[in-house]
């Protein structure tokens, strides 16, 4: 059995018996994951490609069918390891401020707005906002800016999105580069699937009220104040991102529809007779049920195509959240009569593979449900955040508090990363609602309105399944992972 050694109240470590590899936990005893998760982390850490150590964040927990737990950061020197990531590139969040406070929005107004949002921000649906094929290709290359140009929106929001909403940065990418990395079928799917919040149980759009300001100076820099209403959105790159990820990632279990589309796309893939694709095709079944991790040499042809596919998928995540904010803005104008009421605070991803420099070396950082959290020093040159550090958000359940904060300069142990939430608890923290009706009563008691929430298993998003957010933020602050700025409470929640 792998045993953990306590360093301090909020810091623990696991050194492997063989003396190769270690796991750094930024959690207290109360938030430690179960033994199965610890053992899974040990399997990750013993890979010789792992650089330094595996960082396990506050929200570390197992996810069904994944070889690496959620809430982890793993760096490698020369290899991409797709199985280290959740299979949803750029699943992420954005925080949006409003001019409204507690005096402006009555319960009746909130109710009318969310009934409209059910129509314009779809969850469980096959059709989103139709986009021309040319726009989809442009989004793949340039991310959010391509969509904003199509919408004829000049919001200045790209300065408030991680990497400017484009994971390719200044790198020029052609249609040929994309077709070489991604089956053409996926781009056609994206035409119909942009502007969808998503059917996953934990994707959400929350209206939140700022209940406490922890740091007045920082809050004012972000235009945030007590009793202000803000929106927090959680969604990703949709089916395009999922399929682009499945194409390169051996999975233990797939839905039959996923398998069918993946197999059909391979048959029609323009590059299916190349050596690199042959290598990939052979690896998928080999590594699906193996303890060994599939690794891709970064500078190989397969590695270049994987990275292009990952970044193109991530660009769709940024664009999806941009489109959802656009539809949210229009709904507010229609229902409340307020034009241009929204301002993006920040948009960031928590599923990513990026090339960065840590501990003096160039590495590939795999963040699986973990966010980048650079401090002011690493944000030098950013016209908005070089004084504050990079924004981060940490929500919990549908009816418990969330936090907004900034990264610090003292967090290299996690490769300058932060938790993307509190994570599922190994033990139930309170009575679990037995059905949707009981859940609704519990939400009502907490003064939180749930809209939609019709998905099977919505009860699993109840607070009883999640770690204590107070302990979670205390741990991140004690380990100098983040500096809290404001605390927020959900008021109304739109979920699938």
Describe this structure in words.
With 496 residues, the protein is α+β, with helices and mostly antiparallel strands. It has one domain (92-495): Alpha-Beta Complex (tRNA-splicing ligase RtcB), CATH 3.90.1860. Helix content is 32%, strand content 24%. It is built from 13 helices and 19 strands. The strands form 4 sheets. Strands 7, 8, 9, 11, 15, 16, 18 and 19 form an 8-stranded mixed beta sheet that branches. A 7-stranded mixed beta sheet has the order 1-2-3-4-5-13-12, sandwiched between helices. Strands 6-10 form a two-stranded antiparallel ribbon.
Main pleated sheet: 8 strands, mixed
Please report the number of helical segments: 13
So what's the oligomer here?
A: single chain
Measured as a percent range, the helix fraction is 25-40%
* Total number of strands: 19
General shape: globular
User: Any idea what the radius of gyration is?
Assistant: 21 Å
Strand content: 15-25%
CATH architecture classification = Alpha-Beta Complex
Instruction: Quote the average pLDDT.
Output: 93
- The CATH H-level superfamily is tRNA-splicing ligase RtcB
CATH class: Alpha Beta
Q: What is the fold named in CATH at topology level?
A: tRNA-splicing ligase RtcB
Structural class call reads alpha+beta
Give unreliable regions as ranges: none
Keywords:
tRNA-splicing ligase RtcB, alpha+beta, globular, 496 residues
